Amino acid sequence: MKDLIKRIGLVFIVAGVVLLGVSELGGMESNKILVISGSLILGGFIVYVILNNIME
Question: Measuring CA to CA, which of 1, 10, 11, 26 is 20 to 30 A from 48?
Answer without folding.
Answer: 26
